[in-house]
Design goal:
By secondary structure, this protein is an alpha+beta fold. Helix content is 54%, strand content 12%. The protein has 8 helices and 5 strands. A 3-stranded antiparallel beta sheet has the order 1-2-5. Strands 3-4 form a two-stranded antiparallel sheet. The protein is globular and about 50 Å long.
Length: 208
């Protein structure tokens, strides 16, 4: 995916956009999986998710992330406190991650090791997948140049999933923030465990 995204940056050839088309097909496939009969509805409570984000924020401060920046995000999330809404219940795939999706030479899609299945609601899988797209360059030298994949990947995926219905809304936005904080915390934890100097660790923390 990184290689394809980099190629896209230097070329306007539509043939180099096969990943976006594949993401659209993946979105449609996930929608069919989620739309199994008999799942009913799920009541989403924002407070529980916001509580997790606050815990992640506290850990990130310990890893040296700017407290003011973290506080500003958490403060804005306060606008969603008390927010509840019904959404579609579904089976979630805990390993649904862009790094687990492979495309062969015939453009066939393969999902490797989707992980455990768990009852939940559809936006959980959507947020997890979108965030793994956004952090595609984490762990590579490209992060020093603040590179992020073209948004067409996630847009094609969501269009494939929802079709003409622009779904997701507040639930998806809140869960995306939670997933970003979760991966950010994991990156901080990993850096802390490295046998590197404190200066190097703090520098990489700022990069992330």
């Amino acid at each position: 995916y990184r290689k394809q995204d980099l190629k896209r940056r230097i070329s306007t050839s539509p043939q180099l956009d096969s990943v976006s088309e594949a993401m659209s097909r993946l979105g449609r496939a996930l929608a069919r999986f989620h739309n199994q009969p008999g799942k009913g509805e799920f009541t989403f409570h924002a407070d529980g998710v916001i509580s997790k984000i606050r815990r992640y924020s506290l850990e990130l401060k310990e890893y040296g992330v700017n407290p003011g920046y973290l506080n500003s995000i958490v403060e804005k999330l306060g606008n969603y406190e008390g927010f509840t809404v019904s959404t579609q219940a579904s089976i979630n795939l805990k390993g649904f991650d862009v790094r687990q999706v492979f495309i062969d030479d015939s453009d066939c899609l393969y999902l490797l090791d989707p992980g455990k299945m768990k009852d939940g609601y559809r936006e959980v899988d959507l947020a997890r997948f979108i965030v793994t797209c956004r952090i595609l360059y984490w762990g590579s030298t490209a992060i020093f140049f603040h590179l992020a994949p073209n948004r067409s990947y996630e847009e094609s995926f969501l269009t494939g999933y929802y079709g003409d219905d622009k779904g997701g809304g507040k639930i998806l936005r809140i869960l995306i923030i939670k997933e970003l904080f979760k991966h950010w915390r994991m990156a901080g934890f990993t850096l802390e465990k490295r046998p590197w100097s404190l200066t190097r660790k703090r520098f990489l923390t700022k990069v992330y």
